[in-house]
Each structure stands twice: as structure tokens, then as C-alpha cells.
Amino acid sequence: MRASELKRAKRDVRRAVLAARDAIGEAERVARSTEIHRRFLALREAEGVGVVMGFWSFGSEVSTPPLLETMHARGVRVCLPRIGEGDLEAVAYEPGDPMNETSFGVREPADGTILAPEALDLVVTPGVAFDRSGHRIGYGGGFYDRFLRRTRRGVPRIAIAFDLQVQSKELPAGSFDLGVDVIVTETETIRCAPGGTELGVATSQT
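RE: above sequence
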């Protein structure tokens, strides 16, 4: 698939999934997010983890502030992404720390210690759409594809998403795209091929 075709195919998926996600009512979104938090915290990858990079949800994403607070209360060192000089950086975060809002609506830490990507033990990975092999379509900036390449080999990439974001057909993907290892939705936990490679077979557990 040529680059222009890949870009167009991703854009079409992104548009359709965002429209469906945006249609979820607020009360339903909160209820589904709460179940996703429960499932995420029960993962073996989340047990005894030291440093986690989460993200601050915006728009119709799975709500993350309660999850961040719970992880912090458990003694996890939490980081949030911040865009610095065109790339993501992991900034230490505690509930109540000052936040800035970016031009596209995402909130990121105003201050805080910047941790090296190699210091992370787990990355909670956002995205618009996923398939059951772990392929991911983000918002189009490529920030996570670049950042994840700088983390230690084998560090789990865990996506949290609503069921409707998981596509039954394989998503369009390029050679630079990185996938996820686990997808947690409100009804299932999908264990994918390591790194979301094309070769793996995904399995799920309720």
C-alpha cells in the first residue's frame, strides 16, 4: 500500500471510530471506564509495577484521572506524556499537580521531573482504533510510535479502549507503526502478539 493510500485508509478508520465513540453518553462512558479501570488494575502486568506512563484523557476517550489516582495511591510512580520539541517526554505526575492544556485539548503536566523512556515499566497507550493482533491507529502525529521505540525492550504496552474501538478486521499499518501487547475493554482483555506484530495470534480472556 502506497503512503498516500495508507494515510487515507487510516483517516477513514479514525473518522468512523471517533464518530461512534463520541456518540457514547456521558453516564455510559463513566460506567464503561470504571469497568476498564477494574480490569486494568487486575492485570498481572500491573501488579507490583514501579513506574507507569499513563495519559490524561480528553474528549470521548476512556476516562483516566480516576485510574491515575488509584495507581498513585498504590505507590506507583506515575508519569504523563508532554510534547517537548516535537516529541513525547515522560513527566512525573501526582494528583493535584498543575496542568496545561494544549491547543488540541490535551492536558499535560506544567512542571515535573522528566524521566528517561528507559525508566518506564509499563506504558498505558492511547489510540483511536485497535485490532485483535494489537495494531493501533492513533491520532495521526506518530508521537507514540517514536516514543515507544525508546523504551526498554519487553516493557508492556497496554491499551485501554471501549469495545467499539476494537476492529474485527486487521487495521492498515505501515512499517513504522508500533502496536500494543494487551487491549483492555469494558468486556474483555485481549492479549496480542508482542508489540502488535502481524505474525501473532491474539487471544482473549473475560
